[in-house]
Amino acid sequence: MKRTVAAMAVGSALIAGHVCVDLVPALPAVPRTRPGELVEVGALAVRPGGCVANTGGELAALGAPVQAAGEAGSDELGSLLVRLLSSRGVDTGQLRRRPGRSTSYSLVLEPPGIDRSFWHHVGANAECDGTAFELTGVELLHVGYPSLLPAMTADGGEPLVALFARARAAGITTSLDLAVVDPASPAARLDWSALLRRVLPLVDVLSPSVADVRTTFRGPAPGPDELLDMGVAVLMLTSGPDGLELRTGSAARLGRAGAVLAGREAAWAGRRHFLVPPRVPVQTTVGAGDAATAGLLYGLLAGLGPAESLELAAPTGAARVSGTAGRSPL
After folding, report:
1. What phi and psi, each to the nearest 5 degrees, are found at residue 87?
2. Predicted model pTM
3. Staple 299 to which of 11, 258, 304, 317, CB 3.0 to 4.6 Å?
4. Cα separation of 171 and 165, whole Å?
5. CA 218/CA 215 separation, integer angstroms
6. Interval 154-173: pLDDT, tens
């Protein structure tokens, strides 16, 4: 597969939306504190986080030209975020620094053997509505975590619709990833079913986790066939160690999927693939789904077929889990 990828030109991608700094203290157990008590923790890992960093960084590590687009603050954390993204080979020219605003960050609590949880500050992400994104020269636009971008989902999701409509008009292949919606968050009050039924006809690639879908829709969560019926051309559903499922729409729908899939309808239409990722030691689960998305998008950009793209998505996600992310599995 390495020879196949190397023979193909790789298109450029704009990875946009939620971006933050992840602060990850090493924890031997879940801290339980009382007022005035000192609890010892381990060393602090500082990483770029959110969809822009996770998917964009892994896509750059695989060899694709990647630009990041989003909002950061004018504070020191924003300067650190730019340095961290740049060090991963991501072009940060479209990462705007907002005067007087704070940069988004997450405190990631991930003790051994326990699923991670987050304390999150939305920061400048609250102002990200997509209107400033420059799409010239881009072949693929990927937007991540709209539930954490309140300006993008305002007015029933009109800014998100407008962004994808602008990309569609420019012949750009479009991609969307979701995030788990906290039932206590303001995002849970949105009518996501109505919003996504407006957006998904403009989305060529959708790559959520099963948990993302389950928490986003009110009532019974739609299955793969229903999500395809909502208008997407390529669907990848991830469910951690249980596997990745790839479904694709009709040749007619693939024909409207922008530059990256132009002329490849016969290879991609009506496909169904399922793959269990390789078993690896679990160091972290943060960003694993985003990394799998990067593998899928790289396959698209490099001209691979659906089965080959899924076969790249699985080890790219597994590398994130094992702590070896950034080392190309090609």
Report:
1. -65, -20
2. 0.90
3. 304
4. 10
5. 7
6. 999 999 999 999 999 999 99
